[in-house]
Amino acid sequence: LKTALPAHRDGFSPQQIDLGRLLFFDPVLSADQSVSCASCHNPSQGFSDGMGRSVGIHGQQGTRSAPSLWNSAFIKDFFWDARAQSLEQQALSPLFSPQEMGNNPTQLISSLEAIEAYPELFRQAFPHSEDLSLDQIATALAAFQSSLISLNSRYDQYAHGYADALTEPEKEGLNIFRSFVARCAECHTPPLFSNQQIAVIGTPDPEGMAFDIGAEKPNADKTLRGGFKVPSLRNVSLTAPYMHDGRFATLDQVLDHYSHGIQDVTTLDPRLRNWSGSPL
User: Fold this and answer.
1) How far apart are CA 152 and CA 28, in angstroms?
2) pLDDT confidence bin for 277, thresholds 50/70/90
């Protein structure tokens, strides 16, 4: 249970983290100042939004759910399709997406410069830079997200030797989770409860939506068709509905999928096949 954590992002100043926190909750980052980063990443909902598919500017519904931002400092690839390789790259993408915050670089910087407090806050956070820039915005947002650490749960206390931190049913569930029969921990590996890999898990096609090819597009790899990042299960009770498009409302439905609902697609992750080569 005492598996080491992966390397994490660090080295941000307190001023950068605090500036990133202000930006994260400020709707001025969107084109019409109607949505903020926190609109889709709400702290009270595990830094997700409780929706199967997130809603952006002008009420536009996206095609995927908002992933939790907890423990982003330990993550190496971002978005469901793993198309971003840094917190900074991840932070800027929603700002300029027409379906999310709909802004553009010129308007964004102009809007921030027009607010009295921000130029001084940027100077404090970046004392060696003269002009407010996109790089500074990305760094500040990355700094705040890197501070979102959630590693003191009852599970963590149990893993560090406090045997009474978990109830007996919870210990039984953990043993099943880690067992060769269930094999949940092969993909949802402690302590992040994710192996940070892409997996094709044979979920049913979404009703009324075009098939999402997932990680195939950014990786130009047909073996990843319909594949998505293995999400962390930390704070999972707060982040329903589940899967990349929110198709399952409850954890019971997720477990039922793995027990009975896996579809036999050509790219199905080998870890989800039994010894006869069929879906589990």
Assistant:
1) 33
2) low
Please write the tens of the pLDDT for every residue from 98-150: 999 999 999 999 999 999 999 999 999 999 988 999 999 999 999 999 999 99
Helix (H) or strand (E) segment spanning residue 164: none
CA nearest neighbour of 147 among 5, 3, 6, 13: 13
Answer positive or negative: Cα dihedral of 232, 212, 258, 276.
Answer: negative
d(CA 74, CA 9): 7
Give the CA angle between residues 243, 210, 198 to the nearest 5°: 40
Its sign, for the CA torsion 216, 221, 226, 228, is negative
* Residue 67 to residue 52: CA distance in whole angstroms: 10
198: enclosing H helix or E strand: strand 198-199
C-alpha 271/C-alpha 200 separation (Å) is: 10
- Which pLDDT score is estimated for 170? 97
Q: Residue-wise over 190-220: b if at least 16 C-beta within 10 A, else e?
A: bbbbbebebbbbbbeebeeeeebebbbeebe
As given in the structure block, the two tokens for residue 27 are 């709707």
- Assess whether pLDDT exceeds 90 at residue 221: yes
| Contact by Cβ (8 Å): 91, 141 | yes
The label of the residue with tokens 């929110």 reads 246
Residue 280 confidence (pLDDT): 62
Nearest to 144 by CA among 47, 64, 27: 47
Closest CA to 67 of 83, 56, 51: 51
- The rounded distance, in Å, linking the Cα atoms of 219 and 261 is 27
For residue 85, what pLDDT is reported?
94
| Two tokens, residue 59 | 């009420």
